[in-house]
Description:
This protein is 46% helix and 0% strand.
Amino acid sequence: MPEIAKYFDGTENEEEEGNGLIDQLECPELPEGYPVFAHWEEAAKRILQNLMRAKCAWLFAAPVDAEALGLKDYYTIIKSPMDFGTIKGKIKDHKYKNVQGFMDDIDLTFNNCAVYNGLASDVGRMGQSVQEEYVK
Length: 136
């Protein structure tokens, strides 16, 4: 077993909560605003790449072209459009302050699909199938 594993495997004898090995680990002080998860953007890119490989992910590859699709009410119903292409660009341009912003945009993409199309429609079901890849 790797040396660090002993801190997390739960097999150490702990008399009472707070007296385990994990409590003995030193945590370095970090300056205010320091990116604790400095590589979260790389993980976000991989998550997005995997999502874009899903069978129906093409639905979310680019912003909805409401005019070309004849969706005259789209922007009346959907106030904050979002898509995977926009998310990819925001990651590339470091527009997200943290991983939560990225996750919020992914959720917004799926929510917009469900709200506009309904869950029972073909497009709604396709969106749900891609969302299931995200929540796995």
